[in-house]
Amino acid sequence: MIRQHHRRHLGVVVAAAGFAAYAGLPAGAADQAAVAVGLAIRAGKVITMDGEDSVINNAVVLIKSGKIERVGPREEVTIPDGYRVIDAADKWLVPGLVDAHNHTAGSLMDLNDMVYLSNPGLRTLETITPDNKLIKQARAGGVTSVLLIPGSGTNMSGFGTIAKTAGRTVDEVVQRSPGSLKIAQAGNPERYWYGVGRSFMNYNTRQTLEKALAYHSAWNEYEAGKVADEPIYDPIFHGFRGLFRREYPASVHTQIYQVVMTTIDMLDKKFKIRTVIDHGTFDGFKTAPLLEGTDVYTINGPRQYWFDRSQRKMHGNAARWWQGGQHRLGVNTDAPVVPQRELSFQAAMACWYGWKPYEALRGVTRIPAEALLIDDRVGSIQPGKDADFGLWTGDPLDPRSSCEMTIIGGKVVYDAKIKRRF
Amino acid sequence: MNRRVSTVIVAACMAVGASSALAIPPAKVALKGARIIPVVGDDIAVGTLLIENGRITAIGEKVDVPYDAMVVDVSGKVLMPGMIDAHSSRGLDVPNENLPVTPFLDVYDAIDPSKLYFEDALRDGVTSVHVVVGNNCVIGSVSRVVHPIGLTPDEMTLQPAAALKFSVAPKRGWDRMAQMATFRETFRELDEYLENLAEKKYEESVEKKDEKIDVGPDEARKRGRELIKTEDYDDEHRILVKLTRGAFGAIIYAGVASDVSRAVALAGDHGFADRSTFVVGPDCYKAVDELKATGRPVVLDSELLYRERDPVSGDVKETFVPKVYADAGVEFSLLPSSDNSLAERYLNYQAARCVRYGLSRKLALESITINPARAIGVADRVGSLEVGKIANVVVMSGDPLDFNSWVESVYINGISAYVRDKDVRLKQLLGEEPADVAAESTDSSEDESPAEAPKPDGSAAEEKAEGADKAPADKSSSDKTP
Questions:
Q1: Contact at CB, A310 and B98, closer than 8 angstroms
Q2: What is the pLDDT of residues B85-120, one digit of tens each?
Q3: What are chain A's domains?
């Protein structure tokens, strides 16, 4: 009885600490206390999104130092003393949603620097705006990781940044920089100057990548001891070294058959860059057979359907990608095109147009995390991973469900009971 | 070969969105019992055409058909070589870039294999397309000859880097003086670039040896020229260097008769006269003598009947353009119209009109097959039905110059690429119920749409065979069980 009381008392402290962080107030000693003790969540259902696609009913998840400590059925997992308990026996605990195509984690003003047709040296890291209005809304929708990429006004608009949706400083929110290189294969850069066609755009993109590759190769030779003189450091192309080492992918704004085909051919097959097809809309899904034997991901949307005039037929984009054999498939919001909090709706829409519900849920959690090479930290509920979750009233793909609580790094960053946003 | 084969099949299934496992098309096909129009060589009243591994290996009245060849009965049909579209920008997303001078660009980067144009080309019996940028340019980009089937430009390609496009007719918003001045400036700059490059190469070589430059600039450039390697040229000049040095072809557009002399001069002045093909507007027939003097092939605009009104009498004079070239003995190719609603979209209709205006049947057929093949430099592989050539074969229901004849089927690289019976879109157009849809409606589990690209014969036959086999097979097995 005393113990329970103790727990409840601590819970209040932790909740207060969480609220403090969420409200942008300075977090004090209470914060440290919360981290030291640990957190236990009793959930009605845990969608783990682990390798075996386990779903654990009546589960307990233990969290310590911001990481997941243990996941298991209630009868197997004992909650250690001193842990704060969140009792959500009627709720679904779902991995924090991941959006691989986002523009709202930054200032929104600095999306497109239309200086050149390709602007390889830019970084969205410089535009990160922690805890902005749109990001507050994002976490209320259970979204915990976003890739902030620059716009598609030019063929190459800079390096993106993977950010968490809670934190007060740039250092706190940044998960990885560079998150990816943004390339717009076609489908907006056309408007540059007096207008350019695909021959020129593709030539231009290829030229930039070849320069970057030459730079990378020169450094490789130097590092391997083949060349004595250190190459001259180039701030524009140095960021490409990780790209060619496949440490982070290229996020490619690409849609329509010919353009997606070029993306696959140029970036994946010729430059051997880890490639993520963003959008992939219109008849882009017809390229699915070209992806056999590659590790290219497709993060489809925000358009979820395409009306084929020649056949007079409606196609669900995600369903068609899936049917064509592309199973490394997720969806995005392109926020603020679709509000970031509606990532789960995007997945629901994809199902409405014929995709499979569980796969769609995977497509907003594990798949985008894999696509961005951050699945060692987020995208699933497994011991050792970041404690990023949403507690939902039901299936996130059911539009009637709502996210009641969002936890990032073991901290409650949104609680509908304290302040409901939606 | 297998890679290529599966590609063609997948391309056909692309619209359906599913790439189910399909049988590999047979390596050997014998088309038996048809009238054969080889274009080069005499017609064969009833004969057999044998295809092995994508090439024509035998053709004649009596052909020894290997035991393992798939024999296709085409009795009563007519075989002809696949027709060739010698100049088209319809496979590109936009016909032209805004930049006036782009010899560093390649149509490869803008070819869209999913364009309806390619599907239509196949349907109309065209098996090779020379994809060239449009005429709204000064120096355009590098062209490419493709088969109208495949998932990527690489898979479609018959001849990469076919020619460099020039337009003597002014680019939109330009006049002829600016157009010509740009040619002069481009080639002057090329000379300057080569001189500088030669000088640089010489200096580099001297530096390497730790010697001093002890010769004048002229001698330095002369020595440097020999040191230049192919990879030293930058993108902007590489193709122009090849063109002027005799290793690249040009395709030059002249809009009106007065453009012709300038087009001829352009090629002559810069050393590619012997590798140029002229694409000419209808009015250019007036300059037929100048064109004849070049000895080069000419590609005619799709508007074959040219009308002019006499400014004094008001009388309309009609000229059937190909006849002028035929009478002058100039080798010409016909183009299909880019307007899909006109009969001129069919190359065999264009050829038939030549016969209507008194040209020989042989010449008419050559002007849509072997002549365009020569004009775009692929006559060693396509353009006629001859042993050793790529098996691009069109099966017509009757004489190709009879407009009641249909393209029944098309073979590209010896693989069935089009079968009219499976052409769902054509059937929809003609108001019949598409057979495929009817078949699928009974098989409710399949969510297949009418095929966008025509299905290859092999795959469709395979599917049908499976479907047909199933019911009787079940029956017989149940008969056997007791």
A1: no
A2: 999 999 998 999 999 999 999 999 999 999 999 999
A3: 2-95+385-415 (2.30.40.10), 98-371 (3.20.20.140)
